[in-house]
Design a protein that fits this description.
This protein is mainly β. The chain has a domain of 184 residues. The protein has one helix and twelve strands; from the N terminus they run αββββββββββββ. The chain is globular, with a radius of gyration of 18 Å.
Length: 265
């Protein structure tokens, strides 16, 4: 548990986040709207890990149809990850999905290698800074490889933990050329009883990162979330988070239910 900051540090963090929010709003105004590329079980990445920890993780999600005509979808993933050291967490996972426009059969959908790097010790800077690097290989080889990179930001203001991730994805070696896409992840978590904490999550895909477009065609989902951790003994910890996300644009499902369950040991 990190030491809570004083009021002056909290004011500095809030000012820093306000400036970042203005910059993010400018970026969002310049992007091209495209159909959602997100999976129903997408989750918010954070910088909470330690060297030597190992983790078995399950991610589940179900999404209704979207106003723009995108069909309902279900997705699940199972992964095995490890904290290589206090600055690097790496994870391999298998993705499963229901039928989609590009995949007419359900079952195994993709394999991914995800890496999170933290550039400083938690609390060393006013805002913790990290980065994501992920490679995804779909089952259908014609879809190519998807590379995702982007900055990860995390900070505490009193009892409130704030996360913001900006993610940029590019498909290479596929049949279709798709411009670099931009997505975001945002999370608020109020730290209280570790077994049950409350907050909210927002996930979105804004399309091509460098073109104008209509925001209503983008995919924006947000809603309340629950978090919790429970020690199981023998050095094991059970963690979970779940959210009910409501579509806030025509490109987003009307309703998404997502959950994540992990065992650390």
């Amino acid at each position: 548990m990190r030491v809570r900051s004083g009021k002056e540090t909290d004011r500095r963090r809030l000012a820093w986040l306000a400036a970042l929010s203005r910059s993010l709003a400018t970026v969002l105004a310049l992007v091209l709207a495209r159909p959602a590329l997100a999976d129903a079980n997408d989750y918010v990445l954070d910088l909470d890990f330690t060297g030597g920890e190992r983790e078995i993780d399950t991610k589940l999600g179900a999404a209704s149809a979207a106003p723009n005509g995108a069909r309902a979808a279900e997705a699940a993933a199972v992964s095995l990850g490890t904290g290589v050291n206090d600055r690097w967490f790496t994870e391999f996972y298998l993705q499963f999905a229901s039928p989609t426009a590009s995949n007419r059969t359900s079952g195994f959908d993709a394999i991914s290698w995800e890496n999170v790097v933290r550039f400083a010790e938690p609390g060393e800077w006013p805002v913790d800074l990290g980065a994501l690097f992920e490679i995804e290989r779909p089952r259908a080889g014609t879809q190519g490889l998807t590379f995702t990179v982007g900055p990860m930001l995390q900070t505490d203001v009193d009892r409130l933990q704030i996360n913001l991730n900006l993610l940029f994805s590019r498909v290479v070696d596929g049949d279709n050329t798709i411009p670099t896409q931009m997505g975001y992840q945002f999370q608020l978590k109020y730290r209280s009883d570790p077994a049950l904490e409350f907050g909210m999550q927002a996930l979105g895909d804004v399309g091509s990162w460098n073109r104008w477009g209509n925001p209503e065609g983008q995919s924006h989902r947000l809603g309340p979330a629950l978090f919790g951790r429970q020690k199981l003994g023998a050095g094991r910890t059970l963690g979970y988070n779940a959210a009910l996300l409501v579509g806030a644009s025509n490109g987003a499902p009307n309703t998404t239910v997502r959950a994540q369950l992990d065992i650390e040991f």
